[in-house]
Amino acid sequence: MSRRGQIDAVIVGGGVVGAACALALAQQGQEVALVEGRAPARWSSEQPDLRVYAFAPDNAALLDSLGVWPSIVAARVQPYRRMRVWDAAGGAELAFDADALGRAQLGWILENALLVDRLWAALPAAGVRLHCPATVEEVEQDQDGVRLRLSDGSRLDARLAIAADGAASQLRRSAGIDVSDHDYDQRGVVAFIETAHAHEATAWQRFLPGGPLAVLPFVEGRSSIVWTLPTAEAERVIALSDEAFAGELQSALGGRLGAMQPVSARVAFPLRRQLARRFVEDRIVLVGDAAHVVHPLAGQGVNLGLRDVSALRELVIAAQARRVDWTAPHRLARWARVRRSESLAAAYTFEGINRVFSNDEMHLTLLRGHALGLAGKLPALANLLWRRASGL
């Protein structure tokens, strides 16, 4: 039985994963509060967000079920129908094609700011209690729930607290959950560009000794780049003039899209792998970057986080069907085992790919291009790889 005045869940962190989690639980009849330190800026079509995602079909289905996907599509998304992956050292390319896979598209490229904007717009109607701006100042928990004191003077008593407050999660630290991490000594350089040749609704990725370069299709003929480079090289590239940067970028992609022109600022962010030792500690649950941070080469970071939310919602639905408590420790532990296992596999798979392709060791150089080509010549394997990435 719940304590008097106790709500079902408080989510700390109002980014994509936290807001989606609050909305998903509230729509299942749970009493939910969302705590966020700063209200998100409204999305503007005039100022594209440099932070974009290669959004997978299973997560589009999740947002559709939450009622927000139509408004996102109506605002601005770019479907991509093909992927081309190849190695600068040679060998054949690995290709994915929506037609061959029986899909209308492989996925969508969309902006973080747009996702957050549309999710937040849906929270009041779902009955989510917003505490913003507010941060958690004190956490206490026992076997029946968790109590939080907030910077705005509020006190929240909930059966469960869900940490969606990012890689440096304060709530995770409060729960005493350690992380294993590894700094790749790489940076991801992001920007928008225009190209001489049309992007063809194709996601392009070329492996280079310093790290992969991804060129993702965007609206109005623009493309979004994510260029993984060693830290010192990233700092050098950021400091280049637009003309010099365009020349190096065109060369890095092997001239596939012709001449390139930057049309935005350039930003670099550090890359690392980080995994929480546990995804549940008593009455505190970790989701999204609070639980796992992976290399961005496969664009799976936000997709993994939203799969945490989908799995949590399925836990609630199954428990409601059986009229049992979804926050029971053994049910949360089962959820955590499955989610950590998937996150662990994803993190080390992406790390392994990065290590194999982001170097110029002779024996690996001779093998890796041929490996990509072999995968591309086996439709069943290519289908399996894509389905794994898309969550289907």
Automatic annotation (TrEMBL):
GO biological process: ubiquinone biosynthetic process
Pathway of action: Cofactor biosynthesis; ubiquinone biosynthesis
Keyword Transferase appears in the UniProt entry: no
InterPro entries xref list: FAD-bd, FAD/NAD-bd_sf, Ubi_Hdrlase_CS, UbiH/COQ6, UbiH/COQ6_monooxygenase
Molecular function GO labels: 2-octaprenyl-6-methoxyphenol hydroxylase activity; FAD binding
A Pfam family matched in the record: FAD_binding_3
CC cofactor: FAD
UniProt keyword Acyltransferase present: no
Keywords associated with the record: FAD, Flavoprotein, Monooxygenase, Oxidoreductase
Superkingdom as given in the UniProt entry: Bacteria
Positions of the FAD-binding domain: 7-314
Family: Belongs to the UbiH/COQ6 family.
Name of this protein: 2-octaprenyl-6-methoxyphenol hydroxylase /2-octaprenyl-3-methyl-6-methoxy-1,4-benzoquinol hydroxylase
Organism this protein belongs to: Pseudoxanthomonas indica
